[in-house]
Amino acid sequence: MQRVPWVVGISGASGTPYAKATLNALLDAGLPVDLVVSRAARLTILDETGIAFRDAHWAEDLALWLGRSGAGDVRYWPAGDLAAGPSSGSYPVRGMLVVPASTAACAGIAMGLSKDLLQRAADVNLKERRPVVVVPRETPVSRSHLEHLLRLHDAGAVVLPASPGFYAGTKTVDQLVDFVAGKILDAVGVPHTLFQRWAGELGSAR
């Protein structure tokens, strides 16, 4: 069977647990992943987890971060490699998830700057009319950020802020993170069991 992955781009915004939960859910669903980690995201991963994500040792660093025995079906592309597979529209992928999405990443994608592989891959998937989900976490937001998010929406992306819901009997931080990851997967039609869905009955999740 041909390997057709989801591209996951991790930018430098705070919120790497959202990326971790999304990656684990995609791998648990048996879906391959092409991973792009921006230079700023490496600093954020180090700050939020203590793990140094290194190009030369990406597989072991990724396994440590995700809490898995190995890197799974992940292909890693350095953010500076603009000749990488995901930089071309002829490279087969299912679509792209940018999680978390910094204001700089949102602006770069919205304006088509393609200053690194993350931005280029997102631009490619938009022009190819593939699913693109952008997960901004910044708050509050400026007018320029709102304008960039509107441009992304108009270009066909799903703008999915990292806004966890509390109606599913949430008791832990991990459940709040999983709620956002589950909404990301819902947006692209990937089945999961990351949160309890609303069933129309008050208090049912408790």
Describe this structure in words.
By secondary structure, the protein is of the alpha/beta class. The chain has a single domain (6-187), classed as Flavin prenyltransferase-like (Rossmann fold). 39% of the residues lie in helices and 14% in strands. The protein contains seven helices and six strands; from the N terminus they run βαβααββααβαβα. It has helices at 16-28, 39-49, 58-66, 103-111, 117-127, 143-154, 173-187, and strands spanning 6-10, 33-37, 74-78, 95-101, 132-136, 158-159. The chain has a six-stranded parallel β-sheet, sandwiched between helices. The protein starts with 5 loop residues before the first strand and ends in a 19-residue tail after the last helix. The model has no long low-confidence stretch (mean pLDDT 96).
Strand content: 5-15%
CATH third-tier fold name: Rossmann fold
CATH superfamily: Flavin prenyltransferase-like
What does the average pLDDT come to? 96
**String of helices and strands:** EHEHHEEHHEHEH
Largest sheet: 6 strands, parallel
Helix content: 25-40%
Order of neighbouring strands in the sheet with most strands: 3-2-1-4-5-6
Distance from N terminus to C terminus (CA atoms, Å) equals: 42 Å
